[in-house]
Design a protein that fits this description.
By secondary structure, the chain is of the alpha+beta class. It is 15% helix and 49% strand. Strand 4 and strand 5 form a beta hairpin. The two termini are 20 Å apart.
């Protein structure tokens, strides 16, 4: 995987960082620090990432959403298989712990 680009975006009232990756698969990772915690029930499947639970939504384009240590992550892709999405999420947390 190769980092294609990154940019700051607005998510509602919060600033977020969007990083796009390209290679064998293409995906986007959005990282935000929500100022307010919203509890919402997303229609999707619960996925155990090993360090927290995530919700996967969508059909053709899937989004894996999880929150860890006050940071919300959204991993979106049109072609990354679910097993690879989980590996990316786990790798992101591994990098944050360093």
């Amino acid at each position: 995987m190769k980092k294609q680009d990154s940019s700051e975006i607005q998510l509602g009232d919060d600033k977020a960082v969007m990083i796009r990756y390209s290679g064998k698969y293409n995906y986007t990772l959005v990282e935000s620090h929500p100022t307010t915690q919203t509890v919402s029930i997303l229609p999707g499947d619960i996925v155990d990432l090993g360090f927290t639970l995530a919700v996967v939504t969508g059909d053709a384009k899937k989004t894996l959403t999880w929150t860890y240590d006050g940071v919300e992550f959204r991993l979106s892709t049109g072609d990354l298989p679910m097993t690879e999405m989980i590996k990316v999420a786990q790798a992101v947390q591994g990098e944050m712990g360093k």
